[in-house]
Amino acid sequence: MAQPSSLKIIMKRSALITVTIVIIAGLIFIVIKDASKSKTALRPSITFGVSAPNISLINSYNAVSCPSNSVCYAVGSSVIDQTTVIAKTMNSGKTWTNLTIPPEITEANSIDCPTVTECAVSAYTFLGLAGEVLTTLNGGLTWTTSTSPPQHQILSSLSCINIQYCMGSVAVVTGGNLLLSTRNFGQTWTQVNPMGNNIGLSLNPITYCYVTSFCLVSGTDSVPNLKIHLKHKVNNLRNYIGYINSVDNRVTYMQLPDYISIVTSMSCSNIKRCFAVGMADSTIPVILETDNYFKTFKTLKLPKNTGSAANISCNKSFDCLISGGYNSNNAMALDFNALNDTATTLNPGIPNVPDFTVQTCDVSLKFCMIGGSNQHLTFTAFDDLRQIKQIVNNFQLNTFHSTKQKSFSTYRNMLLVGDSTATVMSIGLQMNQLNFGYVINDGSIVGCGLVTNSPTRYTGSTSVTTSNCFSWQQDYQQSVLKSHPYISVLLIGPWDVISRMVNGSYQHIGDPQYNQLFISNLKQAISILSQNGSKVVILNSPYFYHGLMSDLAGWPQDNPMRVDALNSLENQVASQYSNVRTINYGGHISSTNEYLRVVNGVDVRTPDGIHFTDLGAIYESEWILSQINKLNWKSSYDNSQTSKPKRIK
User: Fold this and answer.
1) Domain positions in the chain
2) Engineering a disulfide at 166: which of 24, 160, 186, 641 sits with its beta carbon 3.0 to 4.6 angstroms away?
3) Alpha-carbon distance 180 to 190, whole Å?
4) What is residue 41's predicted lDDT score, i.e. its pLDDT?
5) Exposed/middle/buried for 646, CB within 10 Å: 0-12, 13-18, 19+?
6) pLDDT one-digit tens code per residue, 284-293
7) Looking at residues 190-194, what average pLDDT do you find?
8) What CATH number was assigned to the domain covering residues 412-630?
9) Rounded distance, CA 356 to CA 619, Å?
10) How many CA atoms lie within 13 A of 188 on its CB side?
């Protein structure tokens, strides 16, 4: 069976893997006072407070939009029944109301409201199998569902200047068609045509419109790179920022340097002076500045205690608010002055919130609302407002210089197999592959672990195993034959800790009969992957989180004891082979022996509590590849590439 080759497959099938649950969260709003006339104290006072929505219904928000300083809308989901929630506040977040939406909507991931009564929401229906756009013209009293995006593409980002013009970006498409626009508020959609190469920005696409005639899009072009590589071909992932001229509906792309790993947010002060934040060299948070549509730009390195920069909002005075996480796992907020490249550290003072994931501001930056989540997935909220003086740590930012770009005379093939967690992790590994001397081949199978007994019990429901999972041995074999790996890496977990029918009763990892079945299948996988002398690395699994049952208890498959049992069996089996090693990746990402969504200030887990974010996969791949290289194996044969591949620009 052909291997999955895009994140579109993940998005469609992962809904069958799990009902989407997002992390318990609150909306934390920030009312920003007028900037001081003195640039040494950019915003000397700032008001931080926390708004608590109905905590019995909300677990997190994926996006927030504030068309005024008092009216805001947010999209997220419920912690218990996992239904989609769209909430509204009319008093700057002091109180929230959950709006009634069409029942077929299973998740909403983006919202933009050009006025206090008009909003557009990108959403999923049919368990994530189709994308829809919800619009309201009356403040959320009623919603209209649009099915116009071609083939029900799921919009991952939506930006509306007004009801006459919206731009949407699709997470993964075939053929490179990524951008859609609408001039009638979602009733019909038009393809935005690229100029030059047919680029498919299929990872982490971000759409941002400054005015009707000027929009930006950013993403990673992975369309050529998610299939099994040809033996002598290396495709490095490429990041782009595109300028969209909405008059003729065309976009011109600028390729970013290799050291830019991902762009997470963009904002403009005018149509030429724009800014972006993201990650360089996989682990270094940076700011990109341009005054010519990103044809050229400078890269500034954020302070060393910054773990990630997730959001940026700028005003016409070239003042920007940047938020994300510190590597100490505290929420991060910076006031950035682009006139002299200085930044002031802001202190939100919000306990138990390790990072900010969403942010929206008005054009003056006098009002912003920021969303954050508790690290350990219990709701944390405050209902008080506090005035905090912010004349602290005004410092100059330095130009970023990459030290990571390396060159090797040969590049060894690495095969990654497993379930959809491996599919997403391949993104990060491919981003880092050339710097560690590897060519990453993705042989993962979405929705499939090593144990395929059916039926299964999962989040309270009984279901059957999808048919493609029964041939995982043949698929692994085909991947080995195509990629000739020097090292094969196995990453599994979510499908091997659920309950399955074994010998007439439901069993799970930790039960003796299930353990025997898992051990047998793991040995099969090792036998297939270690052909021709290939080494095998097993990445231990991290913990998972699917939300709460109606009695507020956790789901059985989220019990840490199941993951511990899985990892213990992996270690036990690996110890029986001289060419197999395990790496305690689960212990690295769950260092406190519990589920964590944020590591060193980086949001590494997606809202479903299972997969890795694109940013998380890139960030974590640095650690994984370095740990693999520390194993320092000497192979009995060398099936690495014989010639130095050309780095694709």
Assistant:
1) 30-35+45-50+260-402, 412-630
2) 160
3) 5
4) 36
5) exposed
6) 999 999 999 8
7) 80
8) 3.40.50.1110
9) 17
10) 2
